[in-house]
Amino acid sequence: MSSRGTTGLPREYTEPSPDEENDMSFQAYLDTIEKKTGKTPRELVEEARERGFAEPSAKAGQVVSWLSEEYGVGRGHAMALWHVIRNGPQISAKHVGTEGSHSDASDTLWLDGAATNPAG
After folding, report:
1. Average pLDDT rounded to a whole number, residues 41-59
2. How far apart are the C-alpha atoms of 57 and 112, rounded to whole Å?
3. pTM above the 0.70 mark?
């Protein structure tokens, strides 16, 4: 018997709800992670480094599993943090200042907590 569901995805994978995954800026993903975990993105990046997830040999799946198991964070949100672990707070300017649901205010993500973000 296969460990995959009818969608071909692993059985433990659940589809994200539309309000959780489809209408969020990159910064909103990080702010949501903070609300769920009680830790700022910077604190989580540091924890990831301590666990070896910033090493060149680390895989995104390791971070997804860690955040899911310890904090209940979904895959999309975990992948946003994976980007920051790998690349730092810089993101593509593609969605900066756009009017779509994925619009970000800046091409630099704020990692020190939503409450202290000068952009709002």
Report:
1. 97
2. 27
3. yes
